[in-house]
Design brief:
The complex is a heterodimer of chains A (about 350) and B (about 375). Chain A has about 350 residues and is of the alpha/beta class. Chain A folds into 2 domains: about 180 residues, 3-Layer(aba) Sandwich (Peroxisomal Thiolase, Chain A, domain 1), CATH 3.40.47.10; about 140 residues, Thiolase/Chalcone synthase (Peroxisomal Thiolase, Chain A, domain 1). Chain A is about 30% helix and about 25% strand. Chain A has 12 helices and 14 strands. In chain A, the strands form 3 sheets. In chain A, strands 5-4-6-7-1-8-13-12-11 form a 9-stranded mixed β-sheet, sandwiched between helices. Chain B is α/β, with parallel strands linked by helices and about 375 residues long. Chain B folds into 2 domains: about 140 residues, Peroxisomal Thiolase, Chain A, domain 1 (3-Layer(aba) Sandwich); about 230 residues, 3-Layer(aba) Sandwich (Peroxisomal Thiolase, Chain A, domain 1). In chain B, the strands form 2 sheets. Chain B has a 10-stranded mixed β-sheet, sandwiched between helices. A two-stranded antiparallel ribbon of chain B has the order 5-6. The chains are: A alpha/beta (about 350), B alpha/beta (about 375). Chains A and B meet through loops of A and loops of B.
């Protein structure tokens, strides 16, 4: 039988600060209702001045480690996917590895692929586990995304992280979910980018939709369905990358997935686009409620551009309470929210230049 | 002067062509026009191409040579002409003169623009070059601002309303639904226009034509030789062109485009026709107010009555006078250098009875009206069947 990789632990981190779409629109003289409706995002999570993609990565990884029940010293690799690294040169992955107590006998690196380096990290860990290079690998997607003031991105660019601990299926660690298959679809499509030394990303407007997001998400999903011989009806849950609240809904409709199947993993309307973390937080939210045997489809998207698709099946182990974080993703997203105005937002996101 | 007719017409889909470049757009329109004319490449003797700002949009100049090269037509003479948004029509008029003079029997005329390679902001600056850089654009007056001034003055002098301007966009979108080449095949309502947000008050987003990629081409032939290729040559029966001050500030009136009025007089005189004889017209609606100005200045409606006539449906398809059956610049799209030729392609299809669900009943005399800048150049052409 073919050896598969599985998820043995997971965790998410979402900052408690929130800014409403309305509040941002007001500053730029725009119609907040119209924008919130158009994007399907009413508020977004904002990293505070004391948070960054490294602190969020550590927070989510610690939760993932706790739910896995493994000894951190057995972790053989940590990969962190992000497009908002605190250091241009110096890995976030070493910070995470050290905070977990996994150093020094492991490999670690940061990955970048706009919004999909987190799922790319999952694939790297899968390969290393299946090939027996390592026993356990940590894959993290984390971002404190920035939008240029007054740019359309400012309404959605949010903050968050999710971490997954990957193992071999059989290695007495009892995965809570088995990754049955993965399929990627990649082209050189420049729809969104940030060059060296630039503070904010640039994007190509409507070009980010049809030839970028939709082409890659739909193609990756169809490729996975073909590779696995499955149909949309075979899945109990589907998670699509969520740059806003509308794209994943439209992608699901294009692919023939019932709207009900994406609700559990759709967090963008209340936390915004968490970039590298977006599809991974969606998956974490699905694992919070999945029952043994449930089939989950996940498709990430990274500008530039590519999508990673995964077919995942929950196992019996998912029934055990200890294998879940103490708070679900939904609870995490909805507890202790603290709303800030644009001036506070500008401070927290370091947009005040004379600071 | 010899009579000249159109024997072939071709058009690309108008829209955001992210997957193809300027060359492919030209090639598609040209090949369609040549096929439609049932001529061979060897029949062509010269090429005239209209293109406004390829240097700004894609960094490419020398479009005349590029067209001949792309089409494999070297060593034919191939010339680019530029008159801002009227580039297509000045190229057409150059081709018309070349055949009318007896110099050539068969020439190709094209118009092209590839506008979506740069940001909207950069495109607005590039288009601003159609006005007076020193007196207008440099001081912040982009094109929506210039037409907004004209709209405000029209509102003050004649009581034209924002809803009446919106009615132009609504009607043009309704026509575009039946045009498979149109950028927006989607109906909109007056309320949609009113809610679309101000670009430059009183003009809102849906009062403005979009940024578009596209190309159009026609084949011209002396009418006496045209029957060798087609049973339904479309004869150019009138051609007028006029100029006005580059900047709006120099105009006698903000509510009349004098260049349109003069060009129309020339074309009607040559055709021995009057505005009453026209069965349909493609007019230059870069903004909704521009369509109102056009249908007044062309003599279809009294000055000040264009807004109410549009609101009352008189310019709808097969109403009193069908205006912009293609969807106009607003809904068909406005690749600036291609627009003038696209208007002529639409006239050809209407006169041949090939316009499908947007066909004007009994279309015998068609008019095209193309404006450069805020009215510093205007061209009017009149066409009828010569079979």
């Amino acid at each position: 039988m073919e050896l598969k990789a599985g998820i043995i632990g997971y965790g998410a981190a979402i900052p408690r600060l929130r800014i409403k779409t309305h509040e941002i629109a007001k500053v730029w003289g725009k119609d907040g209702d119209r924008i919130a409706e158009g994007l399907g995002v009413k508020e977004k999570a904002v990293a505070s001045i004391d948070e960054d993609s490294a602190t969020l990565a550590v927070e989510s990884s610690r939760i993932a480690l706790a739910t896995s029940g493994i000894d951190a010293q057995e972790i053989g690799a940590v990969f962190v996917g992000s497009e908002s690294k605190p250091y241009a040169v110096k890995p976030t992955a070493t910070i995470v590895a050290d905070a977990l107590g996994a150093t020094p006998e492991l490999t670690a690196a940061d990955l970048e692929f706009a919004c999909k380096a987190g799922t790319a990290s999952v694939q790297v860990c899968m390969g290393m586990c299946i090939s027996k290079m390592i026993r356990y690998g940590v894959a993290v997607g984390t971002d404190t995304a920035q939008g240029r003031p007054a740019d359309a991105l400012e309404y959605t660019a949010g903050s968050g992280a999710a971490a997954f601990i990957i193992s071999r299926e059989s290695d007495n660690a009892e995965p809570i979910a088995v990754i049955d298959e993965t399929y990627s679809f990649t082209t050189d499509t420049p729809d969104f980018w940030r060059r060296q030394h630039q503070e904010f990303p640039s994007h190509a407007g409507r070009f980010t939709a049809a030839p970028a997001y939709f082409r890659h998400v739909v193609s990756a999903c169809q490729g996975l369905l073909k590779k696995t011989g499955t149909k949309p009806e075979d899945y109990d849950y589907a998670v699509f990358h969520q740059p806003n609240g509308k794209f994943p809904v439209r992608a699901a409709a294009m692919l023939g997935f019932d709207r009900k199947k994406i609700e559990q993993g759709l967090l963008a309307p209340i936390i915004g686009n968490t970039y590298s973390a977006a599809s991974m937080i969606g998956l974490a939210s699905v694992l919070d409620v999945a029952k043994p045997g449930d089939k989950i489809l996940v498709v990430s998207y990274g500008s530039g551009a590519g999508s990673d698709a995964f077919a995942i099946t929950a196992t019996d182990a998912i029934k055990r309470k200890a294998r879940h974080p103490s708070e679900t993703v939904r609870q995490l997203a909805e507890k202790d929210r603290h709303y800030i105005n644009y001036a506070e937002y500008a401070k927290h996101r370091r947009k005040i230049k004379s600071m | 002067m010899k009579s000249v007719s159109i024997i072939g017409a071709g058009l690309t889909k108008f829209g955001e062509h992210w997957q193809v470049g300027l060359r492919e757009l030209i090639a598609e329109a040209a090949v369609k026009a040549v096929d439609d004319a049932k001529i061979g490449g060897a029949d062509l003797q010269a090429i005239y191409g209209g293109c406004m700002a390829s240097g700004r949009f894609i960094g490419q100049e020398h479009i005349g040579a590029l067209i001949a090269d792309q089409l494999g037509m070297n060593p034919l003479p191939s010339t680019r002409l530029e008159a801002a948004c009227a580039s297509g029509s000045v190229a057409f008029r150059a081709g018309y003169f070349a055949v009318a003079s007896g110099m050539y029997d068969v020439v190709a005329v094209g118009g092209v623009e590839k506008m979506t390679e740069i940001s909207t902001e950069e495109a607005a600056i590039a288009l601003g070059g159609a006005g007076d850089q020193e007196w207008e654009l440099f001081n912040g007056a982009t094109f929506p601002a210039l037409y907004a001034l004209m709209a405000r003055r029209h509102m003050q002098e004649y009581g034209t309303t924002e809803e009446q301007m919106a009615a132009c966009s609504v009607k043009n979108h309704a026509n575009a639904v039946h045009n498979p080449y149109a950028q927006f095949q989607k109906e909109i309502t007056v309320q949609d226009v009113m809610d679309s947000g101000y670009i430059s008050s009183p003009l809102k987003l849906l009062d403005c034509s979009p940024i578009t990629d596209g190309a159009a081409a026609v084949i011209l032939c002396s009418t006496d030789k045209a029957r060798k290729f087609t049973d339904t040559p479309i004869e150019i029966v009138g051609s007028g062109q006029a100029s006005d001050t580059l900047a709006l500030s120099g105009r006698k009136s903000l509510t009349t485009l004098e260049a349109t009025r003069v060009a129309a007089q020339q074309a009607f005189k040559q055709a021995r026709a009057t505005p009453k004889d026209v069965d349909f017209a493609e007019v230059h609606d870069c903004f909704s107010i521009a369509e109102i100005l056009a249908i007044e200045d062309l003599g279809f409606f009294a000055k000040g009555k264009g807004g109410s006539a549009t609101e009352e449906g008189e310019t709808a398809l097969n109403a009193k006078l069908s205006i912009n059956t293609s969807g106009g610049l607003k809904a068909c799209g406005h690749p600036v250098g291609a627009t003038g030729v696209k208007q002529i392609v639409e006239a050809v299809w209407q006169l041949r009875g090939q316009a499908g669900k947007r066909q004007v009943d009994g279309a015998e005399l068609g008019l095209t009206h193309n404006v450069g800048g805020s009215g510093a150049t205007a061209l009017v052409h009149l066409f009828k069947r010569a079979d």
